[in-house]
Design a protein that fits this description.
Blueprint (H helix, E strand, L loop, with lengths): L3 H4 L2 H31 L3 H34 L6 H7 L6 H5 L4
Helix pairs in contact: 2-3
C-alpha cells in the first residue's frame, strides 16, 4: 500500500535507502574481509586492489551523505516537514495508531 507520505520526495527516499543498504554492506564487508586478509596473507597486489575497492565504496557512501544532506536541507528551506510517518516508512515500521486515523493530505 502506497500512502501519500511515501510518494513525497522519491529521490531523497532512494538516496536514503541506498545509503542505509550501502552502509550495512560496507560494515559487513569489513567484518568479513579483515580476518581473511590477516589469516590468508594474500599477495600485495590483491591487497591494493581491495583497498582501492574499499576507498571507492567509501567515496560513494560519502557522496550519498552529501546528497542526503542536500535533500533534507532543500525540504527544510521550503518550510516542509518530513512527518513521522514518512520516516517510519523509510525503515518499514508500521504506522502508529494516530497516523492510521489521519486522512491523506
Amino acid at each position: 500500500m502506497v500512502t501519500h507520505s511515501e510518494t513525497r520526495y522519491p529521490l531523497l527516499r532512494l538516496i536514503l535507502r541506498m545509503d542505509r543498504a550501502g552502509s550495512a554492506y560496507f560494515v559487513g564487508l569489513g567484518v568479513l574481509t579483515a580476518p581473511v586478509l590477516v589469516l590468508a596473507d594474500p599477495p600485495a597486489a590483491i591487497v591494493w586492489l581491495m583497498w582501492i575497492g574499499w576507498i571507492g565504496f567509501a567515496i560513494w557512501l560519502a557522496a550519498l551523505g552529501v546528497f542526503m544532506a542536500w535533500g533534507l536541507t532543500r525540504s527544510a528551506m521550503r518550510g516542509e516537514e518530513l512527518d513521522e510517518q514518512w520516516w517510519r516508512s523509510m525503515i518499514d515500521y508500521p504506522p502508529t495508531e494516530v497516523q492510521r486515523q489521519q486522512p491523506p493530505r
